[in-house]
Write a structure and sequence with these properties.
This protein is of the alpha/beta class. About 45% of the residues lie in helices and about 20% in strands. The two termini are about 55 Å apart.
């Protein structure tokens, strides 16, 4: 294959991927809709799915992707039989169809366009399952009626003509999908719509956003011209003040000449004075001419700046609209996520979506995909109860998750709510105690709102057991970090047995925003206006003290006051009335918390173009990025959520003396006991843990492990479930019944993936449950580190 052919094929494959993803998403949405009413399927919807599959098959054939084509053919056979009422749908069949769609999506991501025959055998087992399902679910066809003598013999069935092989692809006229049966092939594609790569659009948007710097620079030039105009005014004042003296000197020179009668030769002093008077006249004329020229140029510059600002604003607005995607492109993923999770957890869950037509920056949608999926997983795993438990609570056995998108000024409000059990405040208190970062008195004194907000802290989880879905205490912390990095905020509201609601506020775009330019310790910084709740000018008597901290009173409530320079580590200067007669401060708000930050000067509010710090500086404390001011100066943009964390640490350091422990606990090597009857798995686990620095002992089954636990101390137990003499469930139960071993962390690593097995693991007291089919050594090490 020549270089040009390869390049063309790669472009062709990229186009095919985009089209194929649309087809698979439409098929998935149709299957989910059919599954809700599988006993009375809507045949027009089946017909639509059949056509989507047929189009995908044709597109795969057109660019020679045999794996995709074969899978689509097997799917098409299913839908064809279904369409002709020859197939009886069932839950198992829907599971298989969704599994096939997952395989199709995986092939779309992993197929090598240069070698489409690669890994062709991987799809054959799935095709065999589809063929088997087609036979197993085929309806019984009625026996044909006996033909009467008057009935003519039926015509022999016409042999179906084979589909013609595709012609070689032509760059100018290739169609990637099979045309529908009804429209003619000569149908003209509307010229109003073109398909353009989102990467190209993103590149154009970035270049357009760079124009904002030109706009700001032009505005800066106007400001400089205005300052120059002020200098002319100052000259005018001084000239007016000096003019009487010049007049006196000129009058004295005239009198001197009159006295001399005009006949004598002027003295050198008189000649110098005459030249000085002439220069004064020339200087006044020159400065006034310069001033007039300055005024004209300033007006022209202001006009050019206005025109440029209008053009840049229009260009940015239009480009943003091009890259504004509807929320539905993100929300359409959720029904399948809910379906798969509800199946794996043994729960019944319906999801309701609204506001999908609201448009937002595609970059925000991309960043919000994982957080939104995690929140849905959190609602199902932690919130929604099992059908039996919901019936005991007089609820419908089917739980509900409602996702709503609503526009709010220049922001978007995203709400994810469930009608589950709500947050357990006592479980949160227990998790905080286990974390050990707060005293028992501080935890007991926390309000319900503060406890609910603690779920966003790393390491906090209400799950009784760690699984691959939940229990690690990292998910919600990552969600909050993602949302805050986008310039948004997240809150949680929960009521016992009534459900939990997450409220997320997001900006419409991430590249530009309004920011406050301020100066602290002689340096300039930008604070996003979205976090600024109030700007204050404080007199010395406005600043009080509480618990060795500076405070102010705002709306009758005390608010902490800290110097921004101290938080940023520029200086440790304290706020004292002697320093300055007045203190300027910004009151910033994150979630339900307010902190006032004292600064040297609050300069202005302006439009800001966000610039990331690059991969070399992916995580700089208290700094989220930078911007270039109109003056050309590079100015850091402050990360306000980070500032709040730094302010809390700063306050803690000022109150508490730092004491170092007498022994270094981190130097003690944890002792691990592995209970596993398979020598292969036992050796694998032992090697993994020893390579990570653990002191490992092995046991061949549960009884052997129990004996070793009684004879020697261990820090953690890692056990299989299916073992002779004493299985993992029985071993865990025995461990929990013995007083010396009751607090020993237990991790079950097993092939049993059913929900009832997980629940049994919880019942017997296991701390973590890891399924071997999804085993990853980093997951095991992470779980053990958390439990230890």
């Amino acid at each position: 294959m020549s270089e040009n052919d390869l390049e063309f094929r790669q472009r062709l494959f990229a186009i095919f991927q985009t089209e194929a993803q649309e087809h698979t998403q439409n098929i998935c949405n149709g299957l989910l809709q059919l599954e809700q009413d599988q006993f009375a399927p809507k045949m027009p919807l089946v017909e639509t799915i059949f056509r989507e599959t047929h189009s995908l098959k044709g597109a795969a054939r057109a660019i020679s992707l045999p794996q995709l084509e074969s899978l689509c053919q097997a799917l098409e056979n299913i839908f064809s039989a279904w369409k002709n009422d020859l197939l009886a749908p069932s839950a198992d069949l829907f599971d298989l169809l969704q599994k096939t769609l997952d395989a199709l999506n995986h092939l779309l991501l992993t197929t090598n366009p240069e070698n489409p025959q690669e890994n062709r055998a991987s799809s054959r087992p799935l095709i065999a399952q589809l063929e088997k399902a087609l036979d197993a679910h085929r309806k019984e066809t009625p026996e044909p009626e006996q033909k009467s003598e008057s009935q003519p013999d039926p015509q022999p069935p016409q042999q179906q003509e084979p589909e013609p092989s595709p012609a070689p692809p032509q760059p100018a006229s290739l169609s990637l999908s099979s045309p529908p049966e009804s429209p003619p092939l000569s149908t003209v594609v509307p010229t109003e719509t073109v398909r353009v790569s989102t990467n190209k659009l993103s590149s154009l948007l970035l270049q357009s956003e760079e124009m904002l710097s030109v706009k700001l620079a032009a505005n800066q030039r106007v400001l400089e011209r205005r300052k120059a105009g002020a200098a002319f005014n100052d000259w005018k004042k001084e000239w007016t003040r000096t003019l009487p003296l010049i007049h006196e000197m000129r009058a004295a020179l005239r009198r001197c000449r009159e006295t001399q009668g005009g006949a004598a030769q002027p003295s050198d002093q008189e000649q110098s004075l005459e030249r000085l008077m002439t220069f004064f006249d020339w200087n006044e004329h020159f400065v006034n001419t310069l001033k007039e020229r300055h005024i004209q140029e300033k007006k022209a510059l202001e006009q050019d700046s206005r025109i440029l600002a209008h053009m840049v604003n229009s260009l940015l607005d239009d480009m943003k609209q091009v890259l504004m995607f509807p929320f539905s492109s993100l929300l359409e993923l959720l029904p399948k996520v809910v379906r798969d999770l509800s199946r794996s957890t043994g729960k019944k869950v319906d999801v309701q979506l609204s506001g999908g037509e609201i448009e937002i920056d595609r970059r925000i949608l991309d960043e919000m995909k994982d957080p939104l999926v995690h929140l849905i997983r959190n609602c199902i795993d932690h919130g929604i109860e099992t059908p039996a438990e919901r019936l005991r609570k007089n609820k419908s056995e089917t739980g509900a998750i409602v996702v709503t998108v609503t526009p709010r000024d220049n922001k978007v409000e995203l709400v994810i709510a469930d009608d589950g059990s709500g947050l357990s405040l006592e479980a949160l208190r227990s998790s905080l105690r286990r974390q050990g970062k707060m005293s028992a008195e501080e935890i007991d004194a926390m309000t319900d709102t503060a406890l609910e907000s603690s779920v966003f802290q790393s390491g906090i989880s209400t799950s009784p057991i760690i699984t691959e879905i939940s229990g690690r205490g990292l998910g919600l912390a990552i969600v909050r970090e993602k949302v805050e990095n986008l310039g948004g905020s997240i809150k949680i509201f929960s009521r016992q047995d009534q459900g939990t609601r997450f409220l997320i506020i997001l900006p419409l775009t991430v590249a530009t925003f309004r920011g406050i330019l301020l100066r602290s310790a002689g340096r300039e910084f930008i604070v996003p206006t979205i976090y600024v709740e109030r700007v204050l000018r404080l007199a010395p008597h406005d600043i009080g003290s509480a618990e060795n901290r500076e405070t102010i009173t705002l709306n009758g409530q005390p608010v902490s006051l800290v110097r921004l320079s101290a938080i940023l580590g520029i200086t440790s200067q304290q706020i004292t009335p002697e320093d300055t007669p007045h203190v300027q401060a910004l009151v910033l708000g994150v979630a339900d918390t307010q902190i006032a930050f004292a600064v040297d000067e609050i300069q202005s509010e302006q439009e800001v173009l966000f610039k990331s710090l690059g991969p070399q500086l992916t995580r700089v404390r208290n700094i989220s990025g930078a911007t270039v001011l109109g003056s050309g100066r590079v100015t850091p943009i402050l990360n306000v959520p980070d500032l709040f964390k730094s302010a809390v640490k700063h306050a803690a350091k000022s109150r508490l003396a730092v004491s170092s422990p007498s022994t270094d606990e981190s130097s003690v090597t944890p002792k691990v006991l592995i209970a596993e009857d398979s020598i292969t798995t036992r050796t694998l686990l032992k090697n993994i843990l020893q390579a990570s620095g653990f002191n490992v002992t092995t046991a061949v089954d549960g009884q052997d492990a129990l004996t070793k636990l009684r004879n020697s101390p261990f820090d953690i137990l890692v056990s299989d479930v299916e073992m002779p003499r004493l299985n993992g469930f029985e071993l865990t139960a025995r461990v929990r019944r013995e007083r010396e071993l009751a607090d020993l962390p237990v991790v079950l690593v097993t092939a049993l993936a059913a929900q009832e097995d997980r629940e049994r693991g919880i019942d017997v007291g296991a701390n973590a449950y890891i399924v071997k089919s999804s085993f990853d050594q980093s997951d095991l090490l992470d779980v053990m580190a958390r439990l230890l």
